[in-house]
Design a protein that fits this description.
693 residues; binds pyridoxal-5'-phosphate; seven-stranded parallel sheet; elongated; 23 strands; alpha/beta; seven-stranded mixed sheet; single chain; 24 helices
Length: 693
């Protein structure tokens, strides 16, 4: 059940050695480092996770070279070398493995490396011996491990400091720059660089090139704070290894320094956090505990210290493609290189235009104009202002109020707050400040039961009484999210749309949580086949990478607002931010290509199966699942901190609130991980951890 966490000691004592290409002297550099570290008294070992081109890994290949480099030194507590996988074909790992009918994966290699570390260091742990692993990759950083993953992916998954090796000569700078950038783009720490000299030459031009390469490289590395070591060309005999170990010392010393100063632990960071920061909906006096997130990949979050969690929240509905998706990051980097931001007043750009076009193709038919906003709450403010300006523009100045069902959530800014649930929301705190809106019963008819027309009675009553003063009805279609995770019957929306039309009120759908496939339809409006006058979307719009939302309206609404030369009065500083638009565009393309519907249906099946056992347990009021949303509603409010600690201990990231323990994992979550999320929820409820403390 529990995930094997990366031991903190591993992250502090392992290094990944890679090169700017194949045949650059990487193995010699690794062997020289091994010797230097052992001479410094460390139990160091050089490990080849994947060795290609050998019949017998112990006697051929790099392991043999490593052993030779330290043959004359006293034996250390660790064997000098180890090979985890070896293949006969002298080729890139993906090809050499395929030739033998095998397939390597980052997850598998990471598991093997950690298992090796544990097996090797466990016997030493009592003795307090300092040890280090040098993990030498095959070839350069972009060498494929399989069809989808490469060495950089492995390096990012291990998240240990990186050593790069290059052979000096023509072209060395270009390869070094590209490799340094690739390592930096993955957020990896550069621990040092080893430049391997070619045989001595009398050619003056060549000597000039070598010297200049070294000087330029040293400048770059100074900027990165990483040391450079230059290895001479020597005969590989005992004297030669000593000269190499001497030459590699600047890098070896940097490794020793990293070993002695492990990364700041999570506790220290949390103490600093507690002094200066504020987290969502918390008190600074008695804050809820926080955990330090350090890295993410796919559907996993990695905490400082190495603990890995299966993500069950998609970072509040947003990270539908999981984390660090290469396509989204590539779009972000490409746009950052062109133009990160520019004002939207008087200027436009391709990312905004293409995103608006794409959105309109995906949204319910009839929506025609896109107003980019910088967050969900702002898009709700924009929608409300649109409705008000529309009513003014069409001569209905008395329509200044909004009607909304109870149990809704629309954001934390003033206008949005005024239409949140009046009891669970923040109305009590801001009573005299908030505009007074109109509330009706929440749609009572469940999604999974036959439609009951009586669920529209209160809407009909309210519109009959107040229809003349209502600018718009605003609600979350089909799923009320943060207000209670309530799934109601889509026919309610059809009836409501008719009532709005009769009353002359606009209809606003807040699809900030439901948009982009989460409910099993691209937009929840599709369940009812209703096109609202105004629609808000956000959250998953950028796949969870950056904040961006949009308010979209019909031509009729835009025309009403802009009658008689009137302008729409809103314009955030970061409106239409090109970075966010570019990522959103990439995310929408990905959504269409990756068969989201099948994935969400699979997610729904797994959630239904996995959460069903909770239904019979004490303190559970309801269990419901729709699309990629699974909800266990409890009878009483849950003790959040206690549940949270239990979930983290179980290796899952689930954050309950009020009377809700809910899951909405990224669409890319493997079935086994959905099962583990559900099992953790069931186990918490079985142990009664959801009951009042
Ligand atoms: C999250 C949410 C909002 C607010 O979006 P922010 O980006 O947090 O401002 C509004 N409406 C709904 C339905 C939401 O789920």
């Amino acid at each position: 059940m529990r995930i094997n966490a990366t031991p903190a000691a591993f992250a502090d004592a392992a290094f990944f050695v890679s090169g700017t290409g194949t045949d650059v002297g990487k193995s010699v550099a690794t062997a020289a480092l091994l010797r230097a570290l052992r001479q410094a008294g460390l139990a160091a070992q050089a490990v080849k996770p994947v060795q290609t081109g050998v019949e017998d890994a112990a006697r051929q290949g790099d392991a043999a070279l490593y052993a030779q480099a330290v043959a004359d030194l006293p034996a250390a507590a660790l064997a000098p070398a180890a090979t985890l996988h070896s293949f006969r074909l002298p080729a890139s790992p993906h090809l050499a493995a395929a030739r033998e009918g095998r397939c390597l994966s980052v997850a598998g290699l990471r598991r093997d490396i950690l298992a090796h570390w544990q097996a090797e260091t466990a016997p030493l742990s009592g003795e307090g011996a300092a040890c280090a692993l040098l993990l030498e990759g095959a070839g350069g950083v972009c060498v494929p491990l399989n069809e989808r993953e490469d060495t950089l992916d492995l390096m990012a998954a291990l998240a240990v400091p990186v050593l790069l090796v290059a052979r000096n000569g023509l072209g060395a700078l270009n390869a070094a720059r590209l490799t340094l950038d690739a390592v930096r783009d993955r957020g990896l720490v550069m621990a040092g660089f080893v430049l391997v000299q070619p045989p001595e030459t009398d050619n003056e031009g060549e000597r000039l090139v070598l010297a200049d390469n070294e000087r330029t490289l040293r400048n770059w590395l100074d900027d990165l704070g990483a040391p450079l070591a230059v290895l001479p060309w020597v005969e590989l005999d005992a004297g030669g290894w000593d000269r190499l170990a001497q030459a590699v010392r600047p890098v070896a010393q940097a490794l020793l320094a990293l070993l002695r100063t492990p990364a700041v632990g999570p506790d220290a960071l949390i103490r600093r956090d507690t002094k200066v920061l504020w987290h969502p909906y918390t008190s600074t006096v008695a804050p809820l505990p926080v955990f330090v997130a350090e890295r993410s990949r796919r559907n996993r979050l990695v905490l400082r210290g190495g603990k890995e969690l299966i993500d069950g929240m998609s970072s509040w509905w947003a990270a539908i493609h999981g984390y660090n998706h290469p396509r989204l990051l590539a779009a972000l980097r490409a746009q950052a290189g062109r133009m990160p931001h520019v004002m939207f007043g008087g200027l436009t750009h391709a990312p905004a235009v293409e995103l608006a076009e794409r959105l309109l193709e995906m949204l319910p038919r009839g929506l025609a104009r896109v107003f980019p906003a910088d967050s969900g709450s702002v898009s709700v403010e924009v929608a409300m202002k649109m409705a008000l300006q529309y009513q003014q523009g069409t001569g209905q100045r008395q329509r200044t109020r909004f009607l909304t069902p109870r149990g809704g959530y629309h954001g934390d800014t003033t206008g949005a707050m005024s239409v949140c649930d009046p009891v669970n929301g923040m109305h009590g705190l801001f009573a005299r400040f908030l505009p007074q809106q109109l509330f009706m019963e929440r749609p009572a008819c469940r999604f999974d039961q036959p439609f009951d027309p009586a669920s529209l009675d209160d809407a009909r009553r309210m519109l009959a009484a107040h229809g003349h003063e209502v600018a718009a009805v605003i609600l979350e279609p089909v799923v009320q999210g943060a207000g209670g995770m309530w799934f109601y019957h889509p026919d309610y929306l059809r009836g409501l749309a008719r009532l709005c039309r009769e009353a002359g009120a606009l209809l606003i759908f807040d699809e900030i949580a439901t948009g982009f496939g989460r409910t099993g339809r691209l937009f929840a409006a599709e369940w009812a086949d209703v096109t609202p006058d105004i629609l808000c979307c956000g959250k998953a719009l950028t796949g969870g990478v950056l904040t961006l939302a949009a308010t979209v309206c019909t031509d009729e609404v835009a025309g009403g607002i802009c009658r008689d030369g009137q302008a729409f009065m809103h314009g955030p500083t970061f409106m239409g931010n090109p970075l966010a638009c570019a990522v959103a565009l990439a995310s929408l393309r990905l959504l269409e290509e990756e068969n989201w519907r099948e994935r969400v249906i699979a997610l729904e099946d797994a959630l239904r199966r996995g959460l069903a056992p909770c239904r019979a347990l004490p303190g559970v009021a309801d269990v419901r699942v729709l699309g990629g949303i699974g909800v266990v509603e409890t009878v009483d409010p849950v003790p959040v901190a206690r549940l949270q600690a239990f979930f983290v201990d179980q290796g899952v990231w689930i954050r309950p609130f009020a009377r809700l323990i809910y899951l909405m994992p990224p669409y890319v979550t493997p079935e086994a991980d959905v099962e583990r999320l559900c099992a953790a929820v069931c186990e918490a409820v079985r142990q009664g951890l959801h009951l009042p403390a």
